[in-house]
Amino acid sequence: MSTGIWLARHAQNLLGALGAVSRNPLGTFLTVSVIGIALALPAALNVLVQTGKSAAGNWTDVRDFSVYLQPATPLARAEALARELRKRDGIDSVQLVTADAAVAELGEDPVFANALAALESNPLPHTLVVRPAGDMDSEQLGKLSTGLQKTPDVDLVKLDLQWVQRLNAGLDFLARLGWIAAVLLGGAVLIIVGNTIRLDIQTRTEEIEVAKLLGATDTFVRRPFLYLGLWYGLFGGLVALLILAISLWLLGGPVENLARLYGSRLALEGLDLTTLSAVLGGGLLAGWSGAWLAVTRHLSGLRPKN
Amino acid sequence: MIRFENVSKRYDGGREALSSVSIEVAAGELAFLTGRSGAGKSTVLKLVALIERPTRGQVIVGGRQLSKLSYREIPAYRQQIGMVFQDNRLLNDRSAYENVALPLIISGTGQREIGRRVRAALDQVGLLDREKYPPRALSAGEQQRLSIARAVVSRPAVLIADEPTGNLDPELSLEIMTLFRRLNEVGVTMVIASHDLPLVERFGSRRIVLSGGHVSSGETVDRPAGAAT
What is the ipTM of this complex? Predict the structure, then answer.
């Protein structure tokens, strides 16, 4: 078969399958809606996780280390240490809070002002506020903390690591949940498409049998149904994206309000290219696979019997 | 051209449709398979078309041992066999033209060549003016002629027909058989299963008589005077 004929046959099957989809609008609507809902759920979980990670990134001040130096450390040594730490990997920025600045800030609070006035000397040490790089996980943060603790002239390193660990664990859990949902609901899409194609095969049983008797290969018989599965998957993916877009639009305002009450500027992550590709690609793959399974199962019954 | 060597076929459930059948049909020959219902006529044709495989023995068509053909090789083999069925197995959601074009589409023939060969086949069976009609709009005789056009459009070396006149009245049956005879005269090897003995006897071709899964005779009958040609 020449390339031109081969391409023409594929184009005929592609458009023929689109025609078959459009001839049954109600059935197609129901099928692609179910596929769309099944694909939208894991995608929504992914958006939630991405938003959570972004939120964790926004709350970087929570991840800052307070590095208290030995009380006797001179200011020049504190400044030198700050410069040294800024050059280290995994550190985004280092801010020096001198002992004088710290006591002045504390003195602005009337509760502490009298107590500080009663003291003969400044009891506060110089402090370095170390901000780690944004992409560090809790394990890397722990290593950084240990490294800082071992630095000469450092007295104490403080980090609310438990909070960070809880946040990351929660996000990991959601991400894992998203994967499980994607696998389960991907399987559901496969079954939905497979069953829809099976019903279509039943209405074309005679045509398939005649074609096989006239010498059609399995590929020839399978091709129009594979295109049908691809159309279902594509339209299902588009419905899923529509559901996601509407959901993000509906939830965007309330989430921002809620975040504002907690002093944050959190916003739901939009549909990025990765999510778009994953939803459409997942829909196409599940549609194709469901159709392939349904037709292959039917064709196995048409093999010559011994 | 077609040779059965001690072929037996037992279906699921234990019924033996053929028992040690040995027959041979030469290239270019027209042979009739006759016998009562259940004699094994359809099974012989199913084995030639590779719809079934024999339980024992060898079926050889055009020098090829069919039991050695893999599943992937069957489509190419079937494209060289024309088949006509009693119920004609035409697709009613397609036109006469599209029905006849189907074997050529399957074999990957170009559109222009398809048009030329389909119209030639329709002309051969006298249905050129019906090419746009769906099969259900045609008479029973026309439908069977259409299925013959579909069977010969690929210019097969072998044509098998299973009770092609089973649903037709005597006049139409004679017309269809005459058409087969004309096709045979241009060199197509034919095996036609029919239980219509009076009709078969009007053609001077070899009759292979099956009875209870055995060949009871393989005689050549002289064409009676006045038989159709």
Answer: 0.87
